[in-house]
Amino acid sequence: MEREEVFSKLNEIFEDVLDLDETPQLTDTTSANDIEEWDSLSHIQLIVAIEKAFKLKFTSQEILKWNNVGEMVDTITSRL
Amino acid sequence: MENKIDHIGWLTDSIEETSKVFSILGYKADAIVNDDTQRCRICFIYKPNEVRVELVEPYEDNKTMQRMLKKQGCGPYHTCHTVKDIDATYEELVSKDFIPLFQPVAAPAFGGRRICYFFKQEIGYYEIVEE
Q: For residue A34, how far is the Cα from the chain centroid?
């Protein structure tokens, strides 16, 4: 799966899980600081939804290393 | 891992209303504490020889917990154990793929003792508090 496709899927997941009014335009540098609804609890809900959508299981170490969406996408693409 | 049960976390949209119903079941309530970091009102209710219950009412602006409340309704949503060394336990749980929501932080409802929340798909939300 191409990075672009991963971002497209993530946009849908973020919109749904965070109950956003419009589809976010996630980029490599997007972080929790850029989206008000993205807090520590919703971060977990995002992870659960992403694991389900991509049929993956992340380790805690992988999750703790993420500083932005780009790093999240790196992990996803490395596993697909 | 050495730990013992401290409480069961109970999500509610009204501490007053939920506490009123628990009083029918013999529970007594402590004072309500505002936790501005967690963006929740918290109240412990207890009954002799029973595990105490932590009623958690999210602030209106706590959108994530409000969504959780809307989805699951009032009810239990986490368990909490006391631990002797919260930093060592944090590291141990992370090494076993419990996902931490944040690093241990001081919590007003525990008189400033530090707490930490984790998530593990197979058991849901899990909290630890230092002795």
A: 13
Identity of the residue in B63, B97, B99 whose CB atom sits nearest the CB atom of A44: B99
Q: B87 with B109: CB under 8 angstroms?
A: no
DSSP per residue, B21-60: HHHHTT-EE---EEETTTTEEEEEEE-TTS-EEEEEEE-T
Angle at CA of residue B124, ends B42 and A41, nearest 5°: 60
DSSP summary character for residue A34: G
pLDDT value, residue B109: 87
Q: What is the greatest pairwise CA distance in chain A?
A: 32
Which residues of chain A have a CB within 8 Å of the CB of B101?
A: 40-41, 43-44
Q: What is the pLDDT of residue A35?
A: 95
- A17-59 residue pLDDT tens: 999 999 999 999 999 999 999 999 999 999 999 999 999 999 9
Q: Identify the pLDDT of residue B61.
A: 93
